[in-house]
Amino acid sequence: MGADTFAPDVNGAARFAERLASGLVARGHEVHIVAPAASSKHGTWTEEYEGQTVTAHRLYSWRWYPHDWLRFAIPWRIKQNSARILDDVKPDVVHFQSHIVVGRGLSVEAEKRGIRIIGTNHFMPENMLEFTLLPKWIQEWAIGLAWKAARRTFGRAEAVTTPTRKAADFLEKFTGLRGVHAISCGIDAHNYTPDFSPRTENRILFVGRVTGEKQIDVLLKAIALLPASLDAKLEIVGGGDQFKNLQHLADQLGIADRVTFSGYVTDEQLRQAYTRATIFAMPSIAELQSIATMEAMASALPVVAANAMALPHLVHDGENGYLFEPGNAHALADRIERILLMPQEELDVLKNASLGIVAAHDIQRTLTTFESLYRGEAVADPVTEAAPPVTTKE
């Protein structure tokens, strides 16, 4: 399994790769991870995730300083490193999680050796451009080049997947690929604890990278618009390059005393944050699925989310929460207020709906589907709850 981002990185792609790897080991498979080293230390050793042991081949890496944590394997060494690892491991299948560096090298060398290749896309070029320091006027050209590079690498794969049908359509549109499978990242709902007890306070939760495309500034502005009588509190879990800027914005908006910036937390602390929250808010405009939203739903939280990219696959307007026009703080505040003012019995309807919708994203179904792809079998995409037509009104 090749990944340009893997633990200890905290993001959806890294978390999916970690859960997929550990889930496969639990089913009796031998799993090797090829990923950039998280520090100057590089080499091959074992690592443990969710109680399962994988062999990690950590490649010599450099820090990308415009980004707050990103490290990358050296591009001009990747084919040599990939060849060395493949000849040593002799895998039955190579599954790359990104086409950028590691996936490119592994796919080139696996193709030469006749090894089955599966590719999964979690990446939108637009998400990284803010960290390239490229002038705005050449970013569109750079996006075009990025999609062409994706086409070349994914074109080597026997099967290509991405987390949702919306994301699959998106990938097909910009690369010209056909037959991309929509396979949910999956979630083990048993790891999360719903709480249906009566609320004692109004808590809104956001979990994710604290970066520009997440549009957390819109969420802060929405909190400032809520009636003071609601005494709503916001918790932001995660880290990123916008951390200090958003703290400053909260101060400017006069809500610093009601906003907690928790930064990175342990898995147990994260689960506790979900359990004690009243609402989960996801204002992001660049989600190919959103594992954090699924975790919130497994915790029986109603969700208020931007009507953008793949979020409507998870948030069914009026059923388990509400969608709002991306970037519209007034609309977001309206949806949050609507839920906070609900009687408990109406809130419980939304909470139960979240549990029902996320049940279709069981990690075991995801593991079974990938096992079939690894064996070269034809698969039907797992059926997850389809998003109904969106009829939100401002």
TrEMBL record:
It comes from Leifsonia tongyongensis. It holds the Pfam family Glyco_transf_4. Residues 198-352 form the Glycosyl transferase family domain. PANTHER family: SULFOQUINOVOSYL TRANSFERASE SQD2. One of its GO terms (molecular function) is glycosyltransferase activity. It comes from the Bacteria. This is D-inositol 3-phosphate glycosyltransferase. InterPro entries: Glyco_trans_1, Glyco_trans_4-like_N, Glycosyltransferase_grp1. Signal peptide: none annotated. GO terms for biological process: carbohydrate derivative biosynthetic process. Keywords: Glycosyltransferase, Transferase. Residues 10-189 form the Glycosyltransferase subfamily 4-like N-terminal domain.
